[in-house]
């Protein structure tokens, strides 16, 4: 009773710390700024980040959350996680999220960031309620319908007949998603999407059922010895992601400590529309004893690939046709005849297992994974890819070891391709005091290490051909001032794209955060990255290497005028020094968010000016619920965005998003979506969420 009264008193005394499920929406904008590195590659970051946003949209049960699940949130330090779990073990279950304020080492800022991501179930509904009853009363069920398009038709649509159009479908992007879940117990759902330019059609022979992409999953958790069972589409993340890494890897960015270590979170349903990062089949984690568990998985899916054939003649057989894969396609786009020809061309059968031993602070495991393709992989020969994977089968074995001792956490993984090289990563997170945290990570990936589901911490885009040493730190002077930074030294033992010789480089960052109150936050950061790249001589065609050094500076100010009005101002400047010449890129933006009853308005006005593509500017744009938008601002122009959210009632919410980009000095706009005549592009998006 005393404990309940204390919690009630704290709750009443706390202003703005609200939490009972359902809860406030997460601040994706802040998470993107803090967690993710600054994009460098031409990837669809919206699809990659969307899966993480969807996971964070479903809270963790504070009384059942494991150490790895808490670590996945990237908010708590190892010392804070240990303090929370110790408090829970000593005091039994939490009676309210407000009780987090009684946990040692959890400061006010951390509490406010953690609160939207966790919940405490009502014990009166759990003691006697049966499983089916909880589905009706406690499940989070919704149907999401979304459509968007550019108001200017690309040239690829502008033809007289459909048969001659380069894009075979309509210019609308259509998305539908259903999910029903009780966090920590079960989840079932499906996702369907067609990209702009793709057709809505039915062709069972081509595995085309209306939408171009369809995903389904059913998950059951914590039922007897079955810890986790997933049927349908899923992903797995074990160890440090050298073999099995899902798509949750985060780059080097504002968060310098917690993002270094990959989370050993295991099996998760796959709910993203990124079409190249999932397994399809069944997987299960079963407890053998209190400290020993085994995970087994099987997947059989189709991959997009450029498939070619060659005629071979054998002295012992008739003429035969040999099929081989020249390259895999990962864009997920099937708009043109060429893209459609690559759709679902090769089977990908993957199976394996993980034997995990966990007792106290020790977490160790053994891993095995085998991948069989339906054809031989024979990539086109280039100067930098002699170690590229060749063949139709790959097998990996490895193990990981994690151990926590007092305020220090050690993590590591070793993996080897049976017919290739090895990869390993080892590091530590160390809380020297309540104010100073350190992180250290060493990694070494052989050029002939092959893993098709990896996502390790790396400078490059693959877990291959890299060695590196990362050192990060964070020092919290007081509740207002925080300083953080990192230095990463890396080298590439063999040739790589745009660098036809072994090279080395470095990357460093310094970040200063000042938060005088809950409604005001200012940060400034500077980053430097140096890499060597090819340069051709004016007198001959020989390549030689020159160092390219890029600097990026960002200043951000966020401030709340009152509970209804929130403002954000940001300036970004980048420079690239290469061949004795400096080019620049600049971005200045202003965001305004206004809440008026059931309506929420968010507007953006951005000015950008970049000399070249190397200085393109990335920044997160607020999007409709469960969507993630991080476009590249390139060229010279103005970007305007307006997002309106209207909560009609508890069951129905509607979002309307309008964006306009006006370029200067362009006669046409060329992108992955096609070519638009003129210098103006308008895009619209509408979404409806129906909750059950």
Structural topology:
Elements: H1 2-13, H2 28-35, H3 45-56, E1 60-61, H4 67-72, H5 78-91, H6 108-114, E2 118-119, H7 123-126, H8 131-138, E3 140-150, E4 173-182, E5 186-194, E6 201-203, E7 208-210, E8 213-223, E9 226-237, E10 266-269, E11 279-287, E12 292-303, E13 305-312, E14 320-328, H9 337-341, E15 346-359, E16 362-377, E17 391-405, E18 408-417, E19 422-431, E20 436-445, E21 466-476, E22 481-492, E23 503-517, E24 520-536, E25 543-560, E26 565-578, E27 581-596, E28 599-610, E29 617-618, E30 632-633, E31 636-647, E32 652-663, E33 668-671, E34 674-677, E35 680-691
Parallel strand pairs: 1-2, 14-16
Antiparallel strand pairs: 3-4, 3-35, 4-5, 5-8, 6-7, 8-9, 9-10, 9-11, 11-12, 12-15, 13-14, 15-16, 16-17, 17-18, 18-19, 19-20, 20-21, 21-22, 22-23, 23-24, 24-25, 25-26, 26-27, 27-28, 28-31, 29-30, 31-32, 32-35, 33-34
């Amino acid at each position: 009773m005393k404990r309940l009264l204390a919690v009630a008193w704290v709750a009443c005394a706390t202003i703005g710390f609200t939490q009972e499920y359902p809860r406030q929406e997460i601040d994706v904008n802040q998470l993107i700024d803090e967690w993710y590195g600054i994009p460098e590659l031409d990837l669809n970051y919206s699809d990659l980040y969307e899966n993480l946003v969807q996971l964070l949209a479903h809270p963790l049960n504070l009384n059942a959350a494991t150490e790895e699940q808490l670590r996945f949130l990237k908010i708590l330090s190892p010392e804070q996680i240990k303090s929370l779990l110790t408090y829970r073990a000593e005091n039994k279950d939490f009676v309210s999220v407000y009780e987090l304020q009684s946990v040692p080492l959890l400061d006010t800022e951390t509490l406010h960031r953690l609160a939207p991501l966790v919940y405490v179930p009502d014990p009166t509904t759990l003691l006697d309620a049966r499983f089916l009853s909880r589905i009706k009363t406690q499940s989070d069920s919704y149907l999401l319908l979304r459509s968007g398009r550019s108001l200017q038709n690309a040239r690829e649509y502008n033809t007289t007949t459909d048969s001659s159009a380069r894009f075979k479908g309509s210019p609308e992007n259509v998305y539908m998603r259903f999910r029903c879940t009780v966090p920590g117990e079960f989840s079932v759902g499906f996702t369907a999407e067609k990209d702009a330019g793709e057709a809505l059609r039915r062709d069972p022979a081509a595995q085309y059922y209306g939408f171009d992409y369809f995903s389904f999953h059913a998950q059951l958790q914590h039922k007897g010895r079955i810890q986790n069972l997933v049927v349908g589409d899923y992903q797995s993340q074990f160890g440090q992601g050298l073999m099995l890494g899902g798509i949750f890897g985060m780059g080097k960015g504002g968060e310098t400590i917690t993002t270094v270590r990959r989370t050993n979170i295991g099996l998760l349903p796959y709910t993203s529309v990124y079409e190249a990062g999932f397994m399809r089949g069944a997987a299960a984690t079963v407890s053998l004893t209190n400290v020993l568990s085994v995970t087994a998985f099987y997947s059989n899916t189709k991959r997009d690939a450029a498939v070619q054939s060659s005629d071979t003649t054998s002295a012992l057989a008739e003429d035969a046709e040999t099929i081989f894969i020249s390259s895999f396609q990962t864009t997920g786009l099937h708009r043109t005849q060429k893209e459609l020809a690559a759709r679902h061309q090769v089977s990908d059968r993957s199976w394996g297992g993980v034997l995990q031993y966990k007792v106290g602070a020790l977490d160790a495991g053994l891993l095995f994974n085998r991948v069989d393709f339906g054809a031989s992989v024979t990539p086109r020969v280039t100067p930098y890819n002699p170690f590229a994977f060749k063949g139709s089968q790959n097998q990996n074995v490895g193990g990981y070891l994690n151990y926590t001792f007092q305020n220090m956490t050690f993590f590591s993984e070793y993996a080897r391709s049976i017919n290739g090289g090895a990869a390993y990563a080892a590091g530590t997170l160390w809380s020297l005091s309540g104010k100073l945290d350190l992180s250290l990570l060493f990694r070494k990936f052989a050029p002939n290490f092959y893993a098709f589901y990896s996502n390790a911490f790396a400078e490059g885009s693959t877990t291959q051909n890299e060695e590196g040493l990362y050192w990060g730190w964070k020092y919290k002077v007081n509740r207002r001032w925080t300083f953080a930074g990192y230095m990463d030294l890396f080298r590439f033992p063999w040739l790589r794209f745009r660098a036809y010789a072994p090279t080395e480089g470095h990357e460093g960052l310094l970040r200063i955060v000042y938060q005088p109150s809950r409604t005001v936050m200012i940060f400034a950061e500077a980053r430097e990255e140096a890499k060597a790249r090819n340069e051709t001589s004016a007198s001959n065609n020989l390549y030689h290497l020159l160092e390219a050094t890029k600097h990026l500076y960002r200043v951000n100010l966020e401030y709340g005028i009152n509970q209804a009005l929130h403002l954000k101002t940001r300036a970004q400047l980048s420079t690239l020094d290469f061949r004795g010449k400096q080019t620049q890129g600049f971005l200045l933006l202003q965001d305004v968010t206004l809440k008026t009853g059931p309506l929420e308005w968010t507007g953006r006005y951005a000015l950008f000016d970049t000399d070249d593509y190397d200085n393109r500017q990335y920044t997160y744009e607020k999007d409709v619920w469960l969507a993630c938008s991080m476009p590249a601002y390139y060229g010279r122009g103005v970007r305007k965005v307006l997002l309106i959210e209207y909560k009609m009632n508890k069951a129905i919410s509607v979002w309307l998003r309008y964006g306009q980009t006006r370029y200067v000095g362009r006669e046409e706009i060329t992108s992955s979506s096609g070519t638009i005549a003129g210098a103006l592009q308008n895009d619209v998006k509408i979404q409806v969420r129906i909750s059950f």
